[in-house]
Automatic annotation (TrEMBL):
Residue ranges annotated for the GIY-YIG domain, each copy included: 24-121
Leader peptide range in chain numbering: none
Gene encoding the protein: nth 1
GO molecular function: class I DNA-(apurinic or apyrimidinic site) endonuclease activity
Source species: Methanobacterium congolense
UniProt protein name: Endonuclease III
Record-listed E.C. numbers: 4.2.99.18
SMART domains registered for this protein in UniProt: GIYc (SM00465)
Keywords assigned by UniProt, alphabetized: Endonuclease, Hydrolase, Lyase, Nuclease
Length: 150
C-alpha cells in the first residue's frame, strides 16, 4: 500500500488552557473544563493526511473535534497513533474510558460508543493511558516524531 494511503487509529491529546463553553456542531454547547482531552479517531483512507489536517489551524469545521480545536485556547499537545488496516477506534475508546471522563456523544455519531473524547487533568495521565491502550490491543504506538516518516 502506498505510504500516503496508510490506514490507522489515533489519539489526539488536546490541551484546553481555560474553562470554556464551546458550540460543537449539532451537539450544541458543551462546558469544557481546563485540562487535557484525548480524542480517539481513525483514518481508513490516509492516516498521515488526517493527522496533518487535525494539526492545521485553518480548516473547514466538519468533525466534532474540529470545533474544539478551532477554539484559540485549545491545541494539540501530542498525537499517539498506530498503523493498521483494522479499525480499532471503538476498542481504543473503551480502554481510555476506564480512566478518563467522557464527554457524552462527542465524536461517535457513526458508532454506538458513548464517547470518543475523554477528559484528564494532566498531560502525563492522558498520554500514559493512550500508550497503554494501544499496547493492550497489540498495536505499536507511534507519536508525532514518527509522523514525518510515514
Amino acid at each position: 500500500m502506498p505510504k500516503n494511503r496508510l490506514k490507522g487509529t489515533y489519539c489526539l491529546i488536546i490541551q484546553l488552557k481555560s474553562q470554556q463553553n464551546i458550540k460543537i456542531g449539532r451537539l450544541g454547547e458543551i462546558d469544557f473544563k481546563r485540562g487535557y482531552y484525548v480524542y480517539v479517531g481513525s483514518a481508513l483512507n490516509s492516516l498521515k493526511s488526517r493527522l496533518e489536517r487535525h494539526l492545521k489551524d485553518d480548516k473547514k469545521l466538519f468533525w466534532h473535534v474540529d470545533y474544539l480545536l478551532n477554539n484559540p485556547d485549545a491545541n494539540v499537545e501530542d498525537v499517539v497513533f498506530a498503523v493498521s488496516d483494522e479499525k480499532w477506534e471503538c476498542s481504543l475508546a473503551a480502554h481510555i474510558s476506564k480512566e478518563g471522563s467522557e464527554i457524552h456523544a462527542f465524536g461517535c455519531s457513526d458508532c454506538k460508543c458513548p464517547s470518543h473524547l475523554f477528559y484528564f487533568q494532566d498531560l502525563e495521565g492522558s498520554k500514559r493511558i493512550c500508550l497503554e491502550s494501544f499496547e493492550k490491543l497489540g498495536l505499536k504506538p507511534l507519536d508525532l516524531s514518527d509522523l514525518e516518516r510515514l
